[in-house]
Amino acid sequence: MSVKSKASRLMVRKQFAIRLIAILAIVAFTCGCTSAAKTKPDQSRAVTVERLLTSPLAGIEARNNVKSAMMELYGIASADLKRIDNRSRILQDRHVLSMFWLEPEPVDFMSIAVAAAPCFPTEHAIRLTQAKLHTKERTPGAQTYDAIQNGVMVSFSTTPDEKCVSYIHIELDR
């Protein structure tokens, strides 16, 4: 076999190897994109105002799941330190949170400010949670309602006109 023929064969093999690597890279990229496209965020863990009001009432584990979801939403790695974050977050339900306060143990609570627009109706929050007015006598202006179930208390306050939820407070019922 001539030197020219050997060089030609070597060139063909190199081209074949390069094409094979390119094809494998395209297949790997396509498979990666395909599997990523199929993976959707877990809708049951998505933070919504309704879930903030109702999920913790299922018990301490559910309350801890809400705490974890809120920490993830605000990029908080550890619940060991007090955190107050005033960055707005738009939730899946299009409501806006304007503040998240995480207080570690032994106090161990979460407070969340809900923006007035879009409004999460107070009447809807009362129906969802079966919350009762915090005080025995109604006072003018913003009101606070409490719901206590399964060792957890969810309180929420209203806007001064009482139409919308403005704050949600979640803690263990001790």
Q: Can you tell me about this structure?
A:
With 174 residues, the protein is an alpha+beta fold. Helix content is 37%, strand content 24%. The protein is built from four helices and eight strands; from the N terminus they run αααββββαββββ. Strands 1, 2, 3, 4, 5, 6, 7 and 8 form an eight-stranded antiparallel beta sheet that branches. A hairpin with a 5-residue loop joins β2 (89-90) and β3.
List keywords for this structure.
alpha+beta; 174 residues; eight-stranded antiparallel β-sheet; 37% helix
Short description:
The protein has 174 residues and is of the alpha+beta class.
Low-confidence stretches: 22-41
Span of the ends, CA to CA:
90 Å
Strand content: 15-25%
Main β-sheet description: 8 strands, antiparallel
Order of helices and strands: HHHEEEEHEEEE
Helix content: 25-40%
Protein structure class:
alpha+beta
Radius of gyration: 27 Å
Number of helices: 4
* Overall 3D shape: globular
Secondary-structure map:
Blueprint: H1 3-38, H2 49-54, H3 60-73, E1 83-85, E2 89-90, E3 96-103, E4 109-114, H4 122-129, E5 132-133, E6 144-149, E7 152-158, E8 165-172
Antiparallel strand pairs: 1-3, 2-3, 3-4, 4-8, 5-6, 6-7, 7-8
